[in-house]
Design a protein that fits this description.
Blueprint: E1 3-10, H1 15-24, E2 28-35, E3 40-47, E4 50-53, E5 61-70, H2 78-94, E6 99-105, H3 123-131, E7 139-143, H4 147-181, H5 190-206, H6 210-226, H7 231-234, H8 255-260, H9 266-284, H10 287-304, H11 310-329, H12 337-364, H13 378-383, H14 400-405, H15 409-429, H16 433-449, H17 453-460, H18 472-488, H19 491-503, H20 510-526, E8 530-533, E9 537-545, E10 551-559, E11 565-576, E12 584-595, E13 598-606, E14 609-611, E15 613-624, E16 627-632, E17 641-644, E18 652-658, E19 661-667, E20 674-680, E21 699-701, E22 704-707, E23 714-719, E24 727-737, E25 740-750, E26 756-762, E27 767-774, E28 780-787, E29 790-792, E30 804-810, E31 815-824, H21 825-844, H22 850-864, H23 867-873, H24 888-896, E32 911-919, E33 921-922, E34 926-930, E35 934-939, E36 942-951, E37 955-962, E38 972-976, E39 983-994, E40 1005-1009, E41 1019-1021, E42 1042-1051, H25 1054-1067, E43 1072-1073, H26 1082-1106, H27 1114-1125, H28 1134-1159, H29 1168-1198, H30 1213-1224, H31 1233-1259, H32 1268-1298, H33 1308-1319, H34 1328-1361, E44 1364-1365
Parallel strand pairs: 1-4, 1-5, 5-6, 6-7, 8-16, 14-25, 26-33, 34-42, 43-44
Antiparallel strand pairs: 2-3, 9-10, 10-13, 11-12, 11-15, 15-16, 15-17, 18-19, 19-23, 20-22, 20-24, 21-22, 24-25, 26-27, 27-30, 28-29, 28-31, 31-32, 35-36, 36-37, 37-38, 39-40, 39-42, 40-41
Length: 1366
């Protein structure tokens, strides 16, 4: 960079006197000049120039200005003065660059010569005349003790410097344009053109015009690239001789002298040009371009190094890359995140390039194996780790760090690892984790080359993801780690890596795939016994072979191993059950299987288990050597199922429940040596226990039925000590066949509960009521009902769930022996379904699926059967059997079944008998205590409802209701609510219960009496309904019914009492009337209540409106009020405010409500224009009534802002009225009445009618109802409208009311015009913000208080007068 100088010639010893002040004013700042080739205005923020005194400037420096210091005074002789002037003139003539002569004195310039015509010439004038009029401005006077003189001197220096710079750049620009125009002529020299243009660039750089300087070098580079054919004529040779580059050190060699003499090489020229560009970019902090241009230099020179040795090229590239990294690391200034990221990426890329050059240099110098660059296969690299260059071709290297690294393996490894680690860190800082892994992989490769296996593993393990697929980089790293683990004997870890490598075989060549396949089999026999989840094998199609003599499952295993693999065993785990506690596992397996690459079908079988049903294929296990590879088949999101039939040789076990017993039928298909049988009910409780009664030859041990050798069918009836839970039962059996222990698991649906429930009740001394009720979901038919050895005819139809057969018979005593014989519909349905399925399976030759399909079809029929229609038509009435997704054969069998409409023999089922002895009880009196308004109670099988209904006059209606029908006109009483603490009232309802003697009916019927309860009374029969059609039984009983009663007591519960009172109030039939008008004074009260909250804001508004000038801001006013009276100062004039509201607000609200009532139409509606008119009239009345109080209020509020001499000092509102009357007369109470009334008319018209309008508008939307939210929203909108309309009149009213006797305001219109003329239109809206801030709360609170007063008044009126409002 060219240096700038101020050259000072001091022949009189003056510099010591002025040097301190002179240098203190340097550097020059904020210069504007037109320089450069384009002659555009340039701004120089700071001009750094050095000072040289009585010495020539350096060769590489540019003298901005030559300064000659002169000292003269009046005491010197004329000869001396003339001599000094002559020397100064001679010096100025010798100067070619800008110059300046400075006359240095301690006072005014000395005079010379006699006074002529009252004029005396000074030495400064004489000196300027000697120099010449043309250059007179080059002579200045400096009184070094005066600041003004120094300012004038440096102003001249600035002007001369700018002129000099413009002249210099103009000369250089002309020279550059001339040389550029002759570019295509013979003899044109690029090097001379470069030197000339660089002088201009240096000048720009010295002036810190970095962009302009960089533009010059960019133009030079463009010219160099455009004329490549003549480059050899300008440079001696390519000349790559120095491999240690420092790009920013442009003075490392005499580049500029070589350019001037045309002796520079192309290599040095390119380095020098790039160095100058980088130096300027660093000054401009454009670091992204720094790295771009450095990379372009490396790529460009690397491409031109055809005849340069590879070792020099690698060494120079390494040194240059490291130099760029040093440049980037030297940036200490705080940068934004984007720049930091760019620099981090750049440093990482240059370090990676340097690392690649270390690979080249290491192989050439024997520090790395000869094939290190050509082989990426780690397995081959380890075999040739010792094959290094026997005779390394070493060339001298200038870089001392690189030369030291190539001298030994240890130093080379240090430099190599440090370079990779630095690149890794920078890649991580820039967010490029994959590139960081590459660098770490290079470190691991070096460790492997040096056989440092543990170090390599330590580097590689964090780089490889533990789960997920491997990409190309991960595969390369995994190969390296696998080699290291294998060398260290870590077979388990190596096996896991080999599996992942095989699963990523698409990134490996065929030889590597075969090698890893062989390694997998070897490692499987070397590792200890262990289990692994693997991705090498997958399960494809799964199918069940139903024609096999065993349970057989065919599984297609997809192998990703590229070679055939011999496995010892393949097994699959099938799981049945919904939870771990009840899961059943079936294991099917195959031995000595060869898995080919791709898909292999494996047949898995078992004979040890028999369980029909749907099984989930949980996992498949492949055993290779000592390793068990586990293949998950099902998971939480995807589950695979198969359906298994029972084992073809498994025994058939059928269960049938009888009264307090269980019949077990065992049908073996092959002889059974022994068997243990467990049965669990629907609640997982064992059916068998030690108290069971078993026949001889059988026994119960550990809740299991033990059966000895069974060669043919056997049937065992076991008496049960308890009644098991009905529903789905589980049958589990362990049996031995020819010494082999086998297992059987089955399920079935069995009803253990007695389907018929018997009850007996005594109606009288010799009369007994007996009922047989169906308690099973399936219908039953009662064939015989025997009471005390007396048989009763059977019921002609099936009974549904809840229905019963009832009879009345003669019996004595407290106990009755009862027996019942019955059949069940589902027994007949089961036999019919089993027969249909067996026939269809035999016809289709699908007998293997018979038992499974029988269970499926029977379960479907149970869910969808219409029992009543089936009984009536003797045919199966149910939904069609669906075709389930359970295999092609089963679907074909289900499609062939014609179950719907099949004939069924209802009498084909077995007959069940039930005996019992019951204790007979009498029907008691039912007493019910009611603690709420309604309560249900059930008396045994007869349901009753006691209903309490509130009546007017604190009376209750208590009724008895049947669950079958409402008892109308009977069993009803009214009760008066008592006021005692214990009860609210009580009553007793009486009813009759009539038993029927012919036929069976579901429930006893309720008979309600319409008159008295004597023997001669008439009884009314209430019909009952138990099914879809009424009962067909006929009442033939002529006896007197049993009379029962229900006592009802209403308890004095607080909640019940409140509920009843609410019901009484709601049920009262009060007359409906219009709402009365509330009292007229509600408006004044509401305004006073609201004014308590808004008075401080009103005071601030008045103060702000009465202040003139610009210092009337709200904050300023608040501070003034607080300074005068503290917090109480905000309530000055509160008494007047209350007086005003009780006059103004009360009058306008009362007038508005009265006018609304009188102006409403006949239907009660009121148009908006009428509401507005009513509001204006009401405002006029209120304004007139409120003017005296308003005047007092304004004066009280503003009194604190007046000077002490002008304050009125009213004690309170009444005192104010009295003083105004005394001093100004009665007319003074109505001063400003016109603007006040005008404002009141606008205020009331805008506020009241807009509130009603907004209220009606919001009520018409679905978002509002009559409540607080409606009142708040409507009043807030009304306040906004009222504030905007009344603000101008409010300002005028305040000015007029506050004016004194000499006020210029005479009328409303004149005051408004005068305010607009003097202060502008915006003055009419002074105080709008505090007005709205005051009026909005005032309006909102006023209307909310008013609505609350009205609501309280109307509610009180309604309760007092027992009326309802429209």
């Amino acid at each position: 960079m060219e240096r700038l100088w101020f050259s000072i010639t001091d022949e009189f010893g003056l510099w010591s006197q002025i040097s301190f002040e002179f240098e203190a004013r340097l550097p020059l700042r904020n210069l504007i000049w037109k320089g450069g080739i384009t002659q555009t205005a340039q701004f120089v923020s700071q001009l750094n120039a050095h000072v040289v005194v009585n010495e020539p400037a350096p060769e590489d420096a540019t003298s901005l200005l030559h300064i000659y210091l002169v000292a003269l005074n009046d005491s010197e002789s004329d000869t001396r003065k003339a001599e000094v002037r002559a020397r100064a003139k001679a010096w100025s003539i010798r100067q070619k660059s800008p110059w300046l002569i400075v006359l240095v004195t301690n006072s005014e310039p000395p005079t010379q010569g006699p006074k002529f015509l009252n004029m005396r010439t000074t030495l400064l004038d004489r000196l300027r005349s000697d120099i010449g009029r043309k250059d007179s401005d080059h002579v200045v006077h400096l009184q070094h003790k005066q600041v003004e003189s120094w300012n004038a001197l440096f102003l001249a220096i600035r002007d001369q410097t700018v002129q000099g710079l413009e002249a210099r750049t103009s000369v250089l620009g002309d020279e550059i344009r001339r040389m550029d125009a002759n570019r295509m002529l013979p003899g044109w020299n690029y090097c001379k053109f470069f030197v000339t243009k660089e002088r201009l660039a240096d000048l720009y750089a010295a002036l810190e015009l970095w962009d302009a300087a960089l533009a010059q070098y960019d133009e030079l580079e463009a010219v160099y690239e455009q004329l490549p054919q003549a480059q050899s004529a300008w440079f001696t040779e390519f000349g790559a001789s120095d491999d240690f580059t420092d790009l920013l050190n442009v003075h490392k060699k005499p580049y500029r002298q070589q350019l001037a003499r045309n002796t520079i090489t192309q290599f040095d020229f390119c380095v020098y040009l790039c160095g100058q560009q980088l130096r300027l970019l660093v000054e401009m902090k454009r670091y992204a371009e720094v790295v771009q241009r450095a990379q372009r230099l490396i790529d460009g020179l690397g491409a031109k190094m055809h005849n340069v040795s590879p070792m020099f090229r690698a060494a120079w590239t390494y040194s240059t890359c490291m130099n760029v990294v040093e440049i980037c690391e030297g940036v200490q200034l705080a940068q934004d995140d984007a720049t930091v990221r760019v620099l981090a990426v750049a440093k990482a890329e240059f370090l990676a390039s340097a690392r690649r050059q270390l690979d080249v240099l290491g192989t050439m110098c024997g520090r790395l194996p000869a094939g290190y660059l050509k082989r990426s296969n780690t397995r081959e690299l380890t075999q040739d780790s010792e094959s290094r260059a026997s005779e390394p071709n070493l060339e001298p290297i200038s870089n001392p760090v690189l030369a030291e690294a190539l001298a030994s393996d240890a130093r080379f490894d240090q430099v190599y690892v440090r370079t990779c680690e630095q690149a890794t860190q920078y890649y991580l800082d820039s967010g490029r984790k994959r590139f960081a892994q590459v660098m770490q992989g290079d470190i691991a490769q070096l460790h492997i080359c040096r056989e440092r296996w543990a170090n390599a593993i330590r580097v590689l393990r964090p780089l490889i993801p533990e789960t997920g697929d491997l990409n190309v980089m991960d595969v390369h790293l995994a190969e390296q780690q696998a080699v290291c683990e294998r060398r260290l004997g870590h077979t388990t870890t190596c096996l896991l890596l080999v599996q992942r490598l095989i699963s990523s075989a698409r990134f490996l060549d065929s030889s590597a795939q075969s090698s890893y396949a062989n390694m997998l089999e070897e490692l499987a026999h070397e590792v200890p016994v262990s289990q692994y989840s693997t991705v090498l094998f997958r399960v494809g199609d799964i199918a069940v072979d139903y024609d096999s003599e065993s349970i057989a499952v065919n599984i297609h295993v997809q192998s990703d191993v590229p070679a055939a693999l011999d496995v010892q065993r393949v097994e699959a785990v099938l799981v049945a059950g919904d939870n771990d506690a009840q899961q059943l596992e079936i294991v099917v397996d195959a031995h000595n299987v060869t898995l080919e690459p791709g898909s292999t079908r494996v047949a898995l079988t078992t004979d040890s288990v028999s369980c029909a049903g749907r099984f989930e294929v949980q996992s498949v296990h492949i055993f290779v050597g000592n390793v068990e590879f586990r293949i998950p088949v099902s998971n939480a999101n995807y589950r695979r199922f198969v359906r298994l039939n029972a084992h073809p040789a498994a025994p058939i076990i059928e269960l049938r429940a009888c009264a307090n017993s269980l019949v077990v039928n065992i049908q073996p298909l092959v002889p059974i040596d022994s068997m243990r049988l467990w049965v669990h009910d629907a609640q997982s409780q064992s059916v068998f226990d030690d108290q069971c009664m078993v026949p001889e030859g059988y026994r119960v041990e550990d809740e299991a039925l033990v059966v000895e050798a069974v060669e043919s069918s056997a049937s065992v009836e076991i008496g049960l000590a308890r009644n098991p839970a009905s529903g789905s039962i589980t049958v589990y059996a362990e049996y031995a066949v020819d010494g082999d222990l086998r297992m059987l698991l089955d399920t079935d649906d069995i009803e253990f509960a007695m389907p018929v429930v018997l009850t007996a009740r005594k109606l009288s001394t010799h009369t007994l009521l007996v009922r047989a009720q169906c308690s099973a979901l399936a219908p039953v038919r009662v064939l015989e009902l025997c009471v005390c050895d007396v048989s009763i005819e059977p019921v002609a139809r099936f009974l549904q769930y809840g229905e019963s057969a009832t009879t009345v018979c003669e019996a004595e005593g407290d106990k009755a022996a009862i027996s019942v014989r019955f059949t069940m519909l589902m027994d007949a349905v089961r036999m019919c379904v089993y027969e249909l399925v067996a026939k269809a399976a035999s016809a289709l030759k699908l007998d293997a699926h018979t038992r499974y399909v029988q269970r499926v079809v029977l379960a479907h029929v149970r869910r969808t059967i219409d029992a009543q229609a089936t009984v009536c038509e003797s045919r199966l009435v149910c939904e069609p059997v669906p075709t389930l997704m359970c295999g092609r054969d089963v679907s074909r069998l289900l499609s062939a079944l014609l179950v719907v409409g099949a004939h069924i023999n209802l009498d084909s089922g077995p007959v069940h008998t039930h005996h019992t002895t019951l204790s007979v009880q009498s029907l008691p009196i039912v007493r019910v205590t009611v603690s709420a308004s309604q309560l249900c109670t059930v008396y045994e099988e007869t349901p009753f409802v006691v209903r309490v209904q509130a009546l007017c006059g604190k009376r209750l209606r208590v009724s008895l209701v049947s669950s079958q029908c409402m008892v109308a006109g009977a069993a009803t009483q009214q009760v008066t609510i008592a006021q005692d603490a214990e009860s609210m009232g009580s009553c007793e309802l009486r009813f009759g219960l009539v038993p029927l003697v012919v036929g069976f009916v579901p429930v006893p019927e309720i008979i309600c009496h319409e008159g008295g309860l004597d023997d001669q009374c008439e009884w009314t029969r209430v019909p009952t309904q138990v099914t879809s059609s009424p009962s067909l039984c006929v009442v033939q009983n002529k006896s007197v019914p049993v009379v029962c009663s229900v006592s009802v007591k209403i308890m004095a519960d607080a909640n019940v009492q409140a509920t009843i009172h609410n019901q009484i109030l709601a049920d009262k039939e009060w007359p409906v009337v219009k709402k009365p008008h509330p009292p007229f004074y509600f408006g004044g009260f509401a305004a006073c209540a609201a004014n308590f909250f808004t008075h401080p804001l009103d005071l601030l508004k008045v103060r702000q409106q009465t202040m003139k000038g610009t210092g009337n801001g709200l904050v300023h006013v608040v501070r003034g009020v607080f300074a005068e009276g503290g917090m109480l100062g905000f309530y000055n004039g509160m008494s007047a405010a209350v007086l005003r509201q009780m006059t103004y607000s009360m009058a306008r609200f009362a007038t508005y409500e009265e006018l609304k009532k009188r102006m409403s139409r006949e239907d009660g509606s009121l148009p908006f224009y009428r509401m507005a008119a009513a509001g204006i009239v009401a405002g006029a009345v209120g304004g007139i009534c409120g003017t005296p109080a308003d005047i007092v209020l304004v004066r009280l509020q503003n009194d604190g802002s007046l000077p002490l001499a002008q304050r009125r000092n009213y004690k309170h509102a009444i005192d104010g009225l009295v003083q105004i009357t005394r001093s100004e007369g009665p007319r003074g109470l109505f001063k400003g009445a016109v603007p006040n009334v005008s404002r009141a008319m606008l205020m009331t018209g805008a506020q009241l009618c807009s509130y009603d309008a907004f209220k009606d508008l919001l009520l018409s939307t679905p978002y509002f109802t009559n409540g607080l939210a409606l009142h708040f929203s409507a009043s807030l909108l009304s306040g906004f409208v009222a504030t905007t309309i009344t603000s101008p009149f409010d300002v005028v009213k305040t000015r007029v009311m506050n004016a004194g006797p000499t006020s210029p305001y005479r009328s409303l219109l004149q005051a408004m015009v005068l305010i607009v003329r003097e202060e502008g239109v915006r003055a009419l809206y002074k105080g709008w913000t505090p007005s709205f801030v005051r009026m909005a709360p005032q309006t909102v609170l006023t209307f909310i208080f008013l609505e609350q007063f009205r609501g309280l008044y109307w509610n009180s009126y309604a309760r007092h007068n027992c009326v309802k409002f429209e």
